[in-house]
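Handout, section B. The chain below has 225 residues.
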Amino acid sequence: MNIVAVGCIHNDLETLLAFIDKLSALTFDIVVCPGDFTDNFLPRGFSRGDVGALIIEELRSLGKPVFVVPGSWDKELMLFFEQEGISVHGVGKAHGNLGLYGFGGAKTPFSLPFEPSEDEIHKGLVSGYKMVESSETKVQVTHAPPFNTKLDLIPSGAHVGSEAIRKFIEKNQPEVAICSHIHEARGHDVIGNTQIINCGRFPEGYCGLITIDKHKVTTKIVNLI
């Protein structure tokens, strides 16, 4: 099973369209988007819902199932994702032998629309995990990266990820954890037996590719440029 992870699109419809064909050349079975479909300044004449719907339409054009969580900018899209049956925010969904669950949003210094507390993140992960606990392979999807990893490191040297996400991974050890949010910290890390990947910002040409062969997981960052 191959998963392609596409994150932090931030309204950039033009670049999304430019990269979607290159993305289709990869071999994958499902698409995961860990949030930030939108941003502060929307394209003229478009609502946040318009942008979210267009992005989902493009991702679905790849012909594979899509699973998402909202980013810090995407509070208005949460109901839409639920109605489309693609949300794993606070819920779990089974796909074959995979159990996908997660929680969106992330704390920032900027008071963005969706900044859940650590307690909310923990409760949402618990709720989603319970729904897929019997799945052979668990895939966790969060917008925020786990705290104190290579994936939450900003240029100042500070770690700005979620302690709740890290503690949940430490306790439950899903096979893979996908995140985004900190664009410059794209890459891989490990917590215990869990492979973690920050897929980076898609309009910069980056996505994540996760290969799951039984319980063996490999992750890599793909540069589409």
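Note. The mean pLDDT is 97. Compare this with the example in section A.
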